[in-house]
Amino acid sequence: MNKFKYITLLGFSSLLLAACGESSDVTVESVSSNSATSTAEEVSSEAESSEETSAPGKRSNPVSIGESATWDVLYSDADYNPLEGTVTTTISNIIRGEEAINQLMEANEFNEAAPEGYEWVIFDMSLVLDEGSEDDPFNTSTILITPISSDGSEVSQSTYATFEDGTAFGWKDLYKGGNDSGKVGLIIPEGDETLIEISDMNTSVFYKLK
Length: 210
Known about the structure:
The chain is mainly beta and 210 residues long. Helices cover 11% and strands 34% of the residues.
C-alpha cells in the first residue's frame, strides 16, 4: 500500500464521506501547447457516450505520456469546512529497471533493489492547483499514487524510494496557482503494463507508464 495512504487526516476523511461521492469529470490534453492536435485531443466525460471509448483517465482509457489530466478536488480549511479546487497533473521522464535502481543508489546508497520478479520505476510528477483558496492550502500529501498491475491488482510496496532532499513529490502546501513537482519511485512487476492511479479519494485518474 502506498505510504501516502497512511497520512490522511480524520477530519479530511470525514469531509469526503460527507460529500456527494460523485467523481469529477476529467479533461485530458497534450502537454505541448504548440501541438496542432491539442484541441482535438482535449476531451471530457462526454466520451462516456461512446460505446467504444470510456471516459478519459479511466483504467480502460488511461492518460498517455505527454498528456496532462485536469479534474476537480475537494479539500478543507483548518476547521474542516469544505473547499473546492481544480488540479492538473502530469507524469514525465519515466525510467524503469536497471537505470532506475542505478539512479536510486546515486540518490541514496540505502535504497534497496526491487524483489525478484519486480523492478523500480521512477517518474517526475507535477501537480498545479489551477483553482483553489487564496488563504487555505491544499496539501499534496492528500494525493494517493498507486501502481495497478495489468491483472488489476494494486502492487504492494515492500520498500520506498528515497531521493535527494527537496526532489521528491508531495507534502507541499499549495494555494491557487501553486505547483508541486518532484520524483516518485515505485516497485512494479518486471516488464508489466502497470498503470499509475492518481487519486484525491474522490476522483481517480490512471496514467500509462509506456
